[in-house]
């Protein structure tokens, strides 16, 4: 079970970065749109922490993708 969760988190981090780059945005720009510190956003992309449900929804709206798109390979 732990391995599966780890894989989802790793995939999320990778997908998050890919979506940001596809939108030609910097980490700082995304963080500002979310109303969080740049360091907090960087932690998401570096697989150090996961966003809250509220912030997951914000990311989904910013990148115009579903939550599944962020977590699936």
The major pleated sheet works out as: none
% residues in beta strands: under 5%
Which class best fits the helix and strand makeup?
A: mainly alpha
Q: How many helices in DSSP terms?
A: 5
Instruction: State the order of secondary-structure elements, H for helix, E for strand.
Output: HHHHH
Give the end-to-end Cα distance, rounded to a whole number of Å: 18 Å
> What is the tally of beta strands?
0
Helix content: over 70%
The unreliable regions are none
Shape: globular
Rg on CA atoms, Å? 11 Å
Q: What's the average pLDDT?
A: 94
What does this structure look like?
- It contains five helices and no strands.
- By secondary structure, the protein is mainly alpha-helical.
- It is globular and about 35 Å long.
- The two termini are 18 Å apart.
What is this structure, in a nutshell?
The chain is 73% helix and 0% strand. It has 73 residues and is mainly α.
Supply the key terms.
single chain, 73 residues, mainly alpha, 5 helices, 73% helix, 0% strand, globular
Question: What's the helix and strand layout?
Answer:
Blueprint: H1 2-22, H2 27-34, H3 38-45, H4 53-63, H5 67-71
């Amino acid at each position: 079970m732990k391995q599966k969760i780890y894989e989802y988190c790793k995939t999320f981090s990778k997908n998050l970065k890919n979506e940001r780059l596809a939108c030609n945005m910097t980490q700082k720009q995304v963080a500002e749109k979310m109303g969080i510190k740049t360091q907090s956003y960087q932690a998401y992309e570096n697989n150090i922490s996961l966003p809250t449900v509220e912030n997951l929804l914000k990311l989904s709206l910013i990148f115009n993708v579903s939550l599944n798109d962020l977590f699936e390979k």
